[in-house]
Specification:
Layout: H1 2-8, H2 11-25, H3 30-43, H4 49-52, H5 58-67, H6 78-83, H7 89-99, H8 105-116, E1 122-123, E2 130-131, H9 148-157
Antiparallel strand pairs: 1-2
Length: about 170
């Protein structure tokens, strides 16, 4: 009975304004903000993506990088190309992972550029600390951050390594 009532309910009309209001308030909790933004995205058929691609918030830019259209299969869109120059490493990694199968000379040149550069700064998804360029782990909570230079090099050479495992040694029993 409850499921049938919810099926007919205009959930998006109720939830979308609430999520739009909540997104800025969730900025101190990036993982919560990411979940709210993805929920909003699912209820709006991707409408906020164009705005999020240039938003000052790296959590929203990362979601845009993960969900914006890539192009016609042969070349990347201007929005995706611009995100390859983002100041947040997670945004760049998100684009790299999506571009990998793309056989575009411009994409390959960007992979080479990123592989040769120092890793950019990044916002820690766990504690919202803004980390400086080149930093491997968060200066506050020590979560391992993005490494777009290593990812780009691995994608170029076809030598993807095992995924990194992040351990919280404070909770480890001796």
């Amino acid at each position: 009975m409850a499921a049938r009532a919810l099926w007919r309910a205009p959930i998006a009309e109720i939830v979308v304004p609430t999520l739009l209001h909540a997104l800025p308030q969730l900025q101190p909790r990036p993982e919560h903000q990411r979940i709210a933004a993805l929920t909003l995205l699912s209820l709006t058929d991707g409408q906020p993506l164009d705005d999020w691609a240039t938003d000052p918030n790296p959590v929203l830019r990362r979601i845009a990088a993960q969900h914006l259209p890539m192009g016609n299969g042969q070349s990347m869109t201007p929005a995706i190309a611009a995100m390859l120059h983002d100041v947040d490493g997670y945004v760049i990694e998100a684009v790299l992972r999506r571009l990998h199968p793309l056989s575009d000379a411009a994409a390959e040149a960007e992979f080479e550029r990123i592989a040769a550069e120092r890793n950019p700064g990044w916002l820690c998804i766990r504690c919202a600390t803004q980390n400086q360029p080149g930093r491997y782990s968060c200066s506050q909570c020590h979560v391992v951050g993005p490494e777009p230079a290593d990812l780009a090099a691995a994608l170029l050479t076809g030598t993807m390594t095992r995924p990194r495992v992040i351990l919280d040694l404070d909770d480890f029993d001796d």
